[in-house]
Amino acid sequence: IQSFDVNKSYKRGKNLNLNWKAGSTNPVHIELFKGSQRIQGELNHPNNGSYLMSIPGSVKPGKDYRIKITDAKNSEEAVYTGYFKVAPKVPLLLKVLPVLAVGGAVAFLAGGSKGGENPPPDTSIEIVNPPLPGN
Q1: What are phi and psi of 92, to 5 degrees?
Q2: Which own/partner contact pairs does 126-133 have at CB distance under 8 Å and 24+ positions apart?
Q3: pLDDT in tens, 34-57
């Protein structure tokens, strides 16, 4: 497998481009594994040296993913990538920041007062009508 960087993080729901040097004209099976569990695969793909693999958005993030390419007519002819990382589509920090921002805005608008503190002094103004002349 050529130009596949196992040190790179690949995102769920995204595509990754696989390229390999075709050794025969036999079709190949291209499979994605998490540990020893097969996640998905393309069977009997033409051995043309390339494949665009989609990483399902439903897989769990982890560092134990790898790809297996097998000669469809000779299962002993198999190549594995090294283990690589699958990351969430949206980083967790970007999911948490909006929630924190809304919580901070609510606290600010609520006055941010804590229990046990004295309430702010009454600053209301009472308007008194002056007496009319001649009364």
Answers
A1: -55, -40
A2: none
A3: 999 999 999 999 999 999 999 999
Structure token digits, residue 17: 């481009």
Q: Give the containing element (helix H, strand E) for 39.
A: strand 37-45
Q: pLDDT per residue over 73-126, tens digit each?
A: 999 999 999 999 999 876 555 555 565 566 666 666 766 555 555 656 666 666
Query: d(Cα 135, Cα 127) in Å, to the nearest integer?
Result: 19
Please, are residues 83 and 63 in contact by the beta-carbon 8 Å criterion? yes
User: Exposed (0-12), middle (13-18) or buried (19+): which is 67, by Cβ within 10 Å?
Assistant: buried
**CA 132/CA 135 separation, integer angstroms:** 6
CA angle 106, 88, 45 (to 5 degrees): 150
| Number of continuous H segments (helices) and E segments (strands) in the chain | 1, 8
Q: Say if strands 74-80 and 37-45 run parallel, antiparallel, or are unpaired.
A: unpaired
